[in-house]
Design brief:
The protein is an alpha/beta fold. It contains 30 helices and 23 strands. It is elongated and about 120 Å long. The two termini are 67 Å apart.
Length: 869
Amino acid sequence: MPRAPRPQAKPTPATDPPRHAAPEQAHPYWSQSAQALLHALGAQVSGLSSRQAAGRGRRFGPNTVQDQEEASAWRLLRRQLSSPLVLILLTGAAISLGLQEWTEALIILAVVLGSVLLGTAQEYRASTAVAALRQRLALNTRVWRDGSLQTQPASGLVPGDIIELSAGNLVPADGVILAATDFLVTEASLTGEPFPVEKQPGTVPADTALGGRRNCVFLGTSVRSGTARVLVVETGRRTAFGAVAASLRGREGETEFSCGLRHFGYLLLRVMLLTVVFVLVVNQLLDRPVIESLLFAVALAVGLSPELLPAIVSVTLSHGARAMAQRGVIVRRLEAIENLGSMDILCTDKTGTLTAGVVELSEAVDAAGVSSPAVLELAFLNAALETGIENPLDAAIVAAGHAAGLPEPAQRKIDEIPYDFIRKRLTIVVEQGAAPGDVPQHLIVTKGAVASVLAICTTVQQGGAELPLDAARLAQLDAFCSAKGSEGFRVLAVATRRVAPQADYGHADEQGLVLVGFLLFFDPPKPQVVQTLQDLAALGITVKVVTGDSRHVAAHVGRAIGLDVQAMLTGEEIAALNDEALWQRAEHTALFVEVDPQQKERIVRALQHRGHAVGYLGDGINDAPALHAADVGISVDSAVDVARESADIVLLRPDLDVLRAGVEEGRRTFANTLKYIRITTSANFGNMMSMAVVTPVLPFLPLAAKQILLNNFMSDLPSVSVSTDQVDREHIETAQRWNVAEVQRFMIVFGLLSSVFDLLTFGLLLWVFGADESTFRTTWFLVSLLTELVVVLVLRTARPAWRSVPSPVLLWTTVAVALLACSLPWIAPVAGLFGLVPLPWTLMASALLIVLAYMLSTEAVKRWFYARA
């Protein structure tokens, strides 16, 4: 199938397509000829001009199905205001306004405004930073503009653009095929069909279902093999994918982190409801004012809940994402940071991660193993003329050809049968020069995996003669390739065949070839990879090699880097295993070799079935299924589109040491997120339980609603800086997993400890100092707030607090808020507003002693808690 000629630049028309780019549905675009569509869209084969594209971009908007308001401050503010906790507070403010309690209402509104603005500012900063990181990974596409082929962001495509697609590309918009060569597209994301379908120019009936439109490509699908030129018809949300994008996003798998947060929210909701109902009932039984009791219950509910949790999580995760970016790791999905930190098995190919990734053609040899310039020339011809998947092997062949002084191929290229992962070979057809009077011939040149090429050969060229490729010679060739593989060489075979000219060529023409020789490539292990594997092992991560390479090459690399090469499974052996057997074998296998894309996915799922958090590192088309299946999909910046877009994490260079640094940062981020959740909820739980218990025995409410809200707001201020905190080494050296039961135990143990000291404070105030209502509330406000601040510095680490230094920002923010809290009763305007009064020095000293005793007791209970854990 001949490739389409390069389009010639022509004067571009001034017309623009209608607002809805596709022709009327009575004659949908897939049922119209290419010429009719070009005319309807005001386009031509040389592409649009930059001016036309800009104008259409303003009319049709960006080519994206996602919301473009990701970093909109107004959008984030609306989300903060729609929080159930904020709505509860606003209801309380409305009740106060209705009763003309102006001061109470203004205080509640001020606290709401402070919390909302703080959360919005932090989330805006976080989302802006993450958007900037993601922009570095924006999808690009090759598009004809101003008569030349350019690389442009896919988001800038407009109806009427002409784009070029090849194997590994994601299709960036809906369009029709203008020209194609062995063009296979995977449409599982739209149709559910797992096998690639061939696309060709032409038309189909208007009522053809999406899966039958073989003349069209659709946004979100991926190119499996071949090349095509496409006329863009629909972009963004007008595409077929755009129509279902929302539902597809809704079905996206929930991460362990998100699931844990959701279950944690349910836990808080249950505790909050029980507490509020209990307090309301008790206050009514004691004949206390209904409105005051209601406001107190509302404040109590809000006080129990970490209302800044969404902002703290966003800030902590985005801080981690920025830190990881500085180490060469770009996070495409923030929730994946936790999964990266919890990973305990990493599946990876060897090329570029375990090996140097700089593939060199060491030698081109004939079938006897003798160096052969003729074989190099044929391989150079094949590699220089192929236009499918860019790969390091072809680059190495071309480089070797140039080094040997070979000129650029002068033969006219007739056709190309692109590489695919089923055939595992690539064929080029060229016109063979003929002497005057001779019949012209075409030369087929095929290179690929040894077994794949041998399967289509009937003879072998040796000593200038073509000999039958019988069993004995096959055994000799297999022994040669095995020996070279054991030495670390990757071996490809080269075969040829001369045929009479024909219009086009297909897979059926790959038969009856003559084996002419082999290509020997070498990609040595990276010098530091053994140390990197040891470092990953120290982090509790086991590395397993999953590769399509031969067992001999994989074994050589495995031995060089210290893997157990006896623990090997081949693709053939995996195909013979049922799922249950693979579950058992996969756990103890170090090298999976000669595997296909579906087997890679089976391996990942088998390891997950055994309870492992699996990371998969891949950069090729054949890695996409496994990247989707893994708990955390990892790719590299130079990967093909479909692999990079399937990944959660993208490495800026293919280096396992970069990944190791990313794992450490992921664990640090997750640890800091859990710190806020554990500390804040345990402190709030203790304080709220204390108030719920003491309410029935006091002649007044222990704290006013405005004091509870101020307490909660001030105690949250240091938590904003928790993302900067340092993390103990032991939390980085082990995989971290979300455990709601453990968070619940932590909340109960340390919350009840806090309640013990709250009750001690109550007793001291009532029976020793005989405190009145204002003194009681002021003292308990201070003790409650100071204990919440002190406990941040104690419970942020499982070590003794004095052996783990907090970050300067967290430390000094906590100290500053504590000093402000102690001074509030003496700041007249604020004190009067919140009902606080100056305390006698003896009472102030006693309160500080209680806080000190609480800090020491928390340290002791912490040792017991972690010793049991």
